[in-house]
């Protein structure tokens, strides 16, 4: 597709880009865009437009081609022996060539660098496929919309009691900046057995999976101090050494354990320490009342908004425009 100004392209459709409100959804009818699909190119209907805040782009160079994309634009890359989605801004930090999957199905070697000037961004939904214009080029890749895919067609969203939305985040690096894992986010977008739209994050280490005792440590350290059987229990430590301390009602320290984070599993098995850790973990994990702040709904995620609408409809609420 040839480069062209956003303002000129959509003025023909009745929209003046710089007069559009930021983050407002504008429905559009009668327009189609030639869209790349795994089966080939196909004409698809444009359903709505959203003007986004201008941003400083990331410059991607490969095969004598230069693209300007948003920092949040995600690429499917091969890195450290694993393949995953990574945001462009994280690839800038690599400061080296990256292998990414091109839309033609071939792996290409690319470099990423930060831009120097702001560009206009227009988010487009094409038959529920998120795309966006940047620097006059249409990118068929989710930037602001919902990047997730739902296996099983309509049956899974309708019949499932619990649906969990998983997303890949930044890489986990070890010694010498070697990539050893990836951060993962999980959100319940449908839950018949508890409050939905609550999120959690964890790490997956390559060759190990989820290192449970380290995830529990991070949870308890972020949770902070609390009372367990009239004793104040705290798990702390920002440096190499971590500590478990237990103080009685008189302020006397009755237990102290110093350890490295990767040794927290052994501390959990210590009979003297385990009762306090289990008590603090129960306080951190069990919520007697869900607050409004615990619920997180991404208004730009098609799947989350649709899931919320379906659940309200099932509960007997009338959500029709009238």
Number of helices: 7
Cα-atom radius of gyration:
24 Å
Helix content: 10-25%
In round numbers, the mean pLDDT is: 77
Q: Note the overall shape.
A: globular
Order of helices and strands: HEEEEEEEHEEEEEHEEEHEEEEHHH
The major beta sheet can be summarized as:
6 strands, antiparallel
Class inferred from helices and paired strands: alpha+beta
Number of domains: 3
End-to-end separation in angstroms reads 41 Å
Number of strands: 19
CATH topology of the largest domain: Endonuclease - Pi-scei, Chain A, domain 1
Residue windows where pLDDT falls under 50 for at least 5 positions: none
Instruction: Name the CATH superfamily classification of the largest domain.
Output: Hedgehog/Intein (Hint) domain
- Beta-strand residue percentage: 35-45%
Q: From the coordinates shown, what is the CATH architecture of the largest domain? A: Beta Complex
CATH class of the largest domain: Mainly Beta
